[in-house]
Amino acid sequence: MTHHFSKNSISTEALPMPSLLLIPTGIGCSIGGYAGDAIPFARLLASASGCLITHPNVMNGANLYWNDKRIQYVEGFGIDRFASGDIYLKPVRQQKVGLLFDRAIEQELLGRHLQVLDACRTSLGIDIGPVVITDNPLDVSLKMGTSGSSWGTVAHPDSLLRAGEKLKDQGATAIAVVTRFPDHLESHDIDAYRKGEGVDVMAGAEAVISHLLVRHLTIPCAHAPALPSVPFTDSLDPRVAGEELGHTFLPCVLVGLSRAPDLVPKEVAMKSDRFTSSELLSVDQLGAVVATEGALGGEATLACIEKNVPLIVVSNKGVLNVDSEALGLFDSSETNRQASFVKAKTYLEAAGLLLSLREGIAIESLKRPVKPISDKILSSK
Fold first, then answer.
1. pLDDT digit string (tens) for 204-225?
2. To 10 degrees, what angle do helices 203-217 and 76-83 make?
3. 292 vs 20: CA distance, rounded Å
4. By three-state DSSP, how is residue 73 classified?
5. How far apart, in whole angstroms, are the C-alpha atoms of residue 127 and residue 270?
6. Coil, strand, or helix at residue 315?
7. What φ, ψ does residue 271 adopt, rounded to 5°?
8. Predicted local distance difference test score (pLDDT) of residue 64
């Protein structure tokens, strides 16, 4: 007997379900608020979804990193534009990473960073260059907001953007930026952070710098601060340890940017015949967004809620308090729900929820007790 099978079969492995992981920087999240401590969780969620989009502070562990082809490394401003539908993401095999250095970095400290470039070129095969030093010191300052989150300012953003333009004109397709951060950081803030009890005081300023470049150039960018080494302490929180292993925070940024997706403006994609729909990721393909309870007021999260992308909110304590109740959301297990929304106590639970969505399993079917279908009968009146 001869058997005939459909020619329209798909791989036996479940198709990837692009998902977004958001853990804002500079707000002291217990997971993701330190030196790459969210990497294991990102790897788990990438395994569950098959394709995870997240931002550099989730994946940056200073001298530690993890290169996973299922994870798309996208700067926060780029994620906002992606979630709003203004840009597409185009996964790539390799980026040419240009280096932008702040003129304020001293010669020896600059030399340490140049050694990182040679190490990553030689040992990891990353395509690096050109290298540009800003025409003026950028003069970065660090601030703390009334909410307890960190932020900062750049006194000479014009110098930053000119250097970025020069790198892009010289062929860089992604930019790693290294700026000199102040030595006179508040010791109690640094001590609290190193003990796992505080906010990363540098993270907010780092976000400002990378946002400026991505907004201006529309190419992948990420930041690493330049600082002298801090004294040894035996009371270090394990989540911070990645930052204590070397002279710079640059290796993880170079690895992340080396495979960061291109940022393709929607209008460029629509007018060009260089792109096919199969090459591009759009917000319309998102199967879910995993966001942090207490930090739901960001542009990307709100854009996904508006587009009714399934929202998984994970308990992950930080200093902000913009939660699901403040936004008027209800858990999808409740009859009176306003969004495709469910809470998860942990990222382990969130991974299970992602896998359920990817496999087409109704989340409601996994909960107990199961409500009878008669409760769902609608009146035609």
1. 899 999 999 999 999 999 999 9
2. 60
3. 12
4. strand
5. 30
6. coil
7. -95, -10
8. 94
